[in-house]
Amino acid sequence: ASSNGLEECLKLLRGERDEQRLAGLLLATKFCQGDDKDSVIKVFNAMGIRFLDRLLMTGIGKSTGNIPNKDQQEAYLQLALTIFAAFCRVPELASLDDVISKVPIILEILSNKPEQSVSVECCECLLEIATASEKGFLALYEARALHTVATHVYHSPADSQSIQLAMRLMQFLLAKKPANIDISEYADQLAAMAVAIARLFAIQQTLLKFDALLVMSTLIASEYSAPIRNSLKLSSRDTAWPTYVRSGIATILQNRIVAYQKHLALVLAESMMEMFGEDWLIGPMELPREDGAVPSDRCLFLVLETTRVEVSVLINELARLKFEYSNNGISSLEEVTIRQRNLANCYALVENIIRLISNACERQDNYISESSMIKATIALNETVGVVIDFLLDAKAHDMTKGDDLLASVRVICRYLAETPSAYQIQFQQLLPYILIISGQNEERPFLSIQFLLPTLCQTTMDPDGCNVLVSCGGHKQVLEFLSILLEDVSEETIGTVLIACDTIMNILLKRDDIQARLLVDDFISVLPALAAWAAKQNDSTEIAMASSICTLALDLSSENSLSKIPKFQIQSLSTVSELIIRSLELFQRAEKSEILGDDHDLYDIIVSGCTCLMARYPSIRQAIGLSSWFQNVLQNR
């Protein structure tokens, strides 16, 4: 009977009159359900695309003949979409040119017909065409489907059945974005879509929540998110959307989920902190099925605890892949790369949380309670301990190159710069090794020293810290690092230059307490560069610091001894002399105006240093001795 019914349907579809074909289409809806591809293909071949095209045009009021009333139009449109969706579910049909050519009209219907039944069919048709063939996929881009679908999601109610299909379509379009497509053209619409999906992400408790997570991650945390983020920052749309994202992430992390979804949530959290700062982790949340107020630090601790566990898991897996299996050729490059990428994101989260806790301690405004800060510090300390063990393991296996090693150095040093008393013994053991770690694309260690500097600046305030650094020759690497930085100092690097100078100052000031002997040879290469840089500065502290380092370093030797060192150019002493004179002039002016800044101690170092240098450096004695400023300083002091 079913076979006879299909034949009757096909006969009507092949009829010459529209009435016959329309009757055939109504019958066809019974045979175009389920997985009966053969019946669908037979219906398509019998009817062709032209009649369906006419029906679609009539349904949207663009018929060339008599336009039926509104109810009939809607009935024709629904019938046409139902049949067209059935065709699109068959990949062989969805990839045909005749079917692909209908993409513009389907997008037009989606824009103009908000009815749920219509929008569901439209989104399904578009998704099937996009996934069936490359040609269909490109047709959607050419018809600006991103714009239309994003706008549809923004204007649809949260319970709309079409949203899930629309999000899957958007995810597919974004994931396979052609290189020639400029995403900034769609930034405003995609930003609006992100705002709409953020609310779904917070309130949905179905599988749709994970679809929302995937799309939000693509919109906010992918390689082409920059224009979308900019639009979100400038937008006056729903300002609660960052709260929705925080709520959604918290809900996901407090449940048992697969590793992929967990890392996706962490990536999204890190991207939100890039946009809004680490304080974004703290704030109100709207969590379904929660009675009473949710603590404002709930998301912080869920992210921190998840990150702590993931760092431990990822480091153990990386250690196994790199250290145990590498010699056997078992480890896969792809496996290692995925874990390194996930670990890098976890490290970024750890650094953000370290900064959050540090800032909260400085503000002392109860933004985070004392008990919460203690709890967070314990978790951070445990995490850093795991990272230190990873580096000790890498050291034992003589591995010194790798971005994962470099990232581990960065996160350890970020923590120790805030808590220099932590892991002192382990840090001292690791320091010589850290100094030779380089990134995968670095020719020699550079970034590892940059990451170390804030910690070294803290540890060298103590003689033991100076001893550890000098005994392994680390001070030479800091000096070499500073020489490279001084070649081109910018607003981005000036802070690092000053930290390096502070570290060198600490070492020079504690030279009498250092067991290893400091040699002037180690410092002479940086002195001309330091003096030349300071000569271009207007900041009195920067000038005084450079001058202090020069006087302290020269005090390690004499002009006669320096003249015997081939790599030292004796004319450099005149550059240093000019710097010292300028420093003294600035100090004299400050004393006259009775406005002494924070650099007063530096001028004490310079004056006492000059007094010592004049006996051993004739050229400096001559240059400074001619300065009435210096004579005045000596008399006044």
Automatic annotation (TrEMBL):
Q: Which domain of life is it from?
A: Eukaryota
Q: What name has this protein been given in UniProt?
A: Neurochondrin
Membrane-crossing segments per the record: none
Tell me which Pfam families the record gives.
Answer: Neurochondrin (PF05536)
- Kindly give the InterPro entries that the UniProt entry links to this protein: ARM-type_fold, Neurochondrin
- Coiled-coil features, chain-numbered ranges: none
